[in-house]
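Hey,
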Amino acid sequence: MAALLPAEWIKNWEKGGKSEFVQLCRALSENKNHDVGFRDIQQALYELAYHVVRGNLKHDQASNVLGDVIEFREDMPSILADVFCILDIETSCLEEKNKRDHFTQLVLACLYLVSDTVLKERLDPETLESLGLIKQSQQFNQKSVKIKTKLFYKQQKFNLLREENEGYAKLIAELGQDLSGNITSDLILENIKSLIGCFNLDPNRVLDIILEVYECRPEYDDFFVPLIESYMYMCEPQTLCHILGFKFKFYQDPSGETPSSLYRVAAVLLQHNLIDLEDLYVHLLPGDNAIIEEHKREIVEAKQIVRKLTMVVLSSEKTEEKEKEKEKEEEKTEKPPDNQKLGLLEALLKIGDWHHAQSIMDQMPPFYSTSHKPIAIALCQLVHVTIEPLYRRVGVPKGAKGSPISSLPNKRAPKQAESFEELRKEVFNMLCYLGPHLSHDPILFAKVVRLGKAFMKEFQSDGSKQEDKEKMETLFSCLLSITDQVLLPSLSLMDCNACMSEELWGMFKTFPYQYRYRLYGQWKNETYNSHPLLVKVKAQTIDRAKYIMKRLTKENVKPSGRQIGKLSHSNPTILFDYILSQIQKYDNLITPVVDSLKYLTSLNYDVLAYCIIEALANPEKERMKHDDTTISSWLQSLASFCGAVFRKYPIELAGLLQYVANQLKAGKSFDLLILKEVVQKMAGIEITEEMTMEQLEAMTGGEQLKAEGGYFGQIRNTKKSSQRLKDALLDHDLALPLCLLMAQQRNGVVFQEGGEKHLKLVGKLYDQCHDTLVQFGGFLASNLSTEDYIKRVPSIDVLCNEFHTPHDAAFFLSRPMYAHHISSKYDELKKAEKGNKQQHKVHKYITSCELVMAPVHEAVISLHLPKVWDDISPQFYATFWSLTMYDLAVPHSSYDREVNKLKVQMKAIDDNQEMPPNKKKKEKERCTALQDKLLEEEKKQLEHVQRVLQRLKLEKDNWLLAKSTKNETITKFLQLCIFPRCIFSAIDAVYCAHFVELVHQQKTPNFSTLLCYDRVFSDIIYTVASCTENEASRYGRFLCCMLETVTRWHSDRVIYEKECGNYPGFLTILRATGFDGGNKADQLDYENFRHVVHKWHYKLTKASVHCLETGEYTHIRNILIVLTKILPWYPKVLNLGQALERRVHKICQEEKEKRPDLYALAMGYSGQLKSRKPFMIPENEFHHKDPPARNAVPATVQNGPGGAGMPTSLTINTVRLEEGTTEETADKLKEKSQGVVKVINKTVNATPKVTTSNGNSASNSKIIKEKDDKEKSGKEKDKEKKDKTPAATPEMKALGKDGKDKPKEERANKDEKAREIKEKTPKSDKEKEKVKKEEKASKEEKSKTVVTIIESKSTAEKEREKEPSRERDLAKEMKSKENAKGGEKVPVAGSLKSPVPRSETSESEREQKRRKVDTHSSPSHSSTVKDNLNELKDSSAKHYINHTTPALSKSKEREVEKKDLDKSRERSREREKKDEKDRKDRKRDHSNSDREVPQDSTKRRKEENGTTGSSKHSKSESPSDSPRLNEKEKEKNKSKSSGKEKGDSIKAEKMEKSSSGSKKESRHDKEKAEKKEKRDSTGGKEEKKHHKSSDKHR
């Protein structure tokens, strides 16, 4: 601190320093701030005195100035004494004696200013002695000690009870008198005072007696409290507390029990602040440390109990455990010592002193105090009283009286709550201290919940001010805290009180589900760990749950359900958590568990919903199985349980739906499984790929038909549950977001989710996402009202452009909207004008369509590039996407089927004798009503379909614009319409096929049906390979329906002429746009159509075989699925079927161990294929092989630019350009048509397999090459073509197969062949005649036909040696038949596998050879014996309708067979002779031949030696076919076919070539023949060598 006296003042003291000092002191004493002034004056005086001590100032100068200053303040002498006291201490320590002398002189000089007593009080005895104020310091010290002892330690003698019993008796009489009169505490106090004085009573003892009497007369609070208060003025403040403490001490023996009256007195005194809690608390036992220790011990004990319950104990251990437990319990029964703190707390609560009670509770561990029942009950009672007025006002339910609770008598009790705000301030705090122990008072529990309900009603009603809203928000959050900390834990400790659970739900249902689930989460995961009691309860619940679940079966659902219900009232979270864990492990528990949940309360159902979501979201669980290809079974079980439980019970769905939406937002689609199950169970909408065609047909009808015949399970009573689902979606605005998220997630599955995952799983997830979208969309379409739907679904351009929804999904969502719109507009127009004529109706319908669809036509333009709309109009695009099967056809057979079922049902009801009559009546009424509904629905649909067809008839002319080319139009149509939609759903697949047929039937301009079908069947590899499993199934359905149509046209000329004959879709010359007509020559005639169909079958086989041979999982799986779906219509041709059968058999063998799912698929298909085999027909029955007349030769033309599409167009001979065809081409055309060559769809076959699904093919280069070839070597080609007579290729192939495979096949499949022969044997005279005609035809064709006589002879001989006569006859008949029919069994196998690329053949050679092979590789070029139409009809009727062949009587069969055999033997002998002759002639002519044929034949021979070691494949049509050869297969075949057979086949091959060359033949053939003969002998060796070399090559 800075010095207040500067040194100058001291130096110039007399001049000015003195006056300055006085002024300073005056200023300081006048300072208003008392404390600051006091300190500064003290410092100033001290500094002055110190200058004197140091000798800077004389003592008399100082005493003079002090004399002037002393009057400034009253306490100045005291301040001065203090200064002297400090200096006394300081100078006594100093060694300089002069300073001490200066000090004493100063004090002596100032004695007149400070009184002696003050100095004696403050200065040291030695200093006082030196000043002369006392005589001897020693004596002074002794005297002061004596006085202090007398003052503080000597007791005044009072009389105690025994010494003065009269006085105390009078005192007790005073206190015990009747106090009801006008006696006051003051009066009594005066009497007590006089008694104390008179009898010399001990005042402390008197106070003790007053307290004793008060204890005995607790009702006289108003008297005793003032008395004690007045009495305490005479005592020291601590006295009362000490006396009470002594009283409590008295009872602290182990055996002592503190009386409640003492607690009450202490509580009342505390409440009136006569004593302090801190002072009394230290007198009470047990100590706080002991309490904390006890609390910890309780927690440990609780945990041990849990451990015991969860431990698996063996029986021997059990008995020991039980004994130990008994001992422990006996120890426990010894009474615990009295807890005085809790006793006092209880008393405080009873009198309503919440403030002090709270303080005591705060000293203890949380909830320790309230865990003692008396305290909990006392606190509950206090809460009862506090909430009474508010509860009476807002909480009492209607009609309930309730017993009013009177308020506490004392005024210091908490104020009763009149409003919710007061409730928050007072009561909520009390409840928080109660915690889970509110369970002791269920009535209070109910009251609190009812107040919560009343508050929520007020909270949710709007119209309050901003301030009020904030207050309400605070209140609401407090209410949630109370629920979390008090209500739910208390419910856990209640003994299964269902009423409380329902009461609580009354409040809970007003909370949004987010808050509820938060509360359940806290309750389940945190609350149970916070209190020892709850820890025990949790363990007991789990133990009990285990007991119930172990015994739960379908049979005891009811009793087990009751036990589950009982357990769930108090601890639902724990119970459900355990049940769900069991369901995840054992899915067979789902049904019994769902049934057993019927005794739950509403709250429990809600908790169950939360538990399910928590289980689904469990981050520790893997959603995939370990193989990473399938979804985990726990997830599937949970999803299934979800569906069942949400359907059966009224559980709120919002949380679950939001969870799924959130998962989708996060890019996870696993949980769509749940949505799928929920929609399926609740709305009865099934999505399955396993639908039968009958079900599919039913699904194209109205709602009633769908429900009756469309689903697997009979779906009943889904009205309520689907309504609940709909409400949940609409209330929480989840309907559209879920749709959009699913639509977007479909591609997300592949590109975001599927990165690391197995392709199989990605496909599964994609399918799941897609199926759920279809199912969910279907649900919305059928359940939302028109307004709701239209309000929620935006227009198509917004869906696609803003929400980036894929087009197929966007139209799928919009379609119901259009239908709603049109029907409502139509109804409006009908009402406006009441014209009943059908024409009027149709006109109105078309008008309403135009009104609704016009904006859609505008909207779709933005979906694609402008170029697209050059070929197809937006109107066509929108029409295609907006219609459904319901609009195109009426499923009459489905309606009839369901009506008949109902009739049968009614008959069964009539026949049932046991059924009571009233039930019979009800059932019959139900059936009749259903029948009427179905018939009405059918009629309605029929009218609707007629209207739609009328509308399409009017629209069709504007559909296809074909501004570029017809081919491009078809490409766009397939790319943008058919392909995306046919894999969308099973019904859409059927729709696409129907739509194509419809466009054809409507004679739509610019639509080439032929092109469309050709593109669909020609290259299915890419489409199949890029499908998921379910898409493959739908694509299969689409192909099946397409094939059905084609097969119908193929089956009968009359049908073909009627449905296709004069239709623009079957024009083969595509003229300029707008030209619809055309002469008959431009139409594809029936026979050529049959060739084309055969080509399509061939193409399908080729694609199938390619996919099966890739070894790729997806290719094999998908093609097997597709093949299974198209089985009714394909394969029809025997050799194609056999080729497929072999490949599938190979798959079965290869995949048995590796990929069991493929093995199962292949085995399934293989079995079905075998069962279809009897219905397959030889190729020449499928289409005629003889060349049709010239005018029937159609050719397809590309009009305009766009040669890219050419290969896929149906060229029958070659491409004929309408405009600007060169002379050369025309000449060639003539030559070709005159020659016997019939090449169907050369260009198609030449196309390498690069044609994409949208038709843009990569085959230009190939075509250009071909054209160049034509121009360069026209003559050579002519020669080649003459050489290769039509018989050549097929025969060669027939040999390729028949020669190599027949012996083996006959041995393997004799029974099958026998069966086929039986079928083929003519069964009537007419048929015999047919056979004769066929024989004649075959004899005429002998020059063309090459018959493998040597081989047939040798094999037949072998067979004769090996087989008994019956089988030999059969074999012979078989051979002769094949010969007669010109080897109709063209083995596709032969031409399906491309040869291993060989280094010897140069590129150009290979290219040339491939072109030649391609020219003839389609089996449809082969010349055929004329097929009888009726026979085909017959066979188709047999095979496809009845599926049974009528059996012939055995005798008749034998006769026919005998005749047949005889004839065939004669024929074969004649042929052998003729052929020998022919061969000799040909050998002579060899030398004149051209070089090209032998080259070709050597090349082929090389190939045969190189690649036909496998009997299954020869040449491939397309370079992209798989070039690998299966080594295993070769080995098998090697062992089967002997070298000799091989030799025979090669010889036959050579002969076939030579026979096909007309007159010119070269000398090379002779050399080849010689080489071949040599090789015959060493055939076996050669083959072995070849195998070795090919191994090396590999």
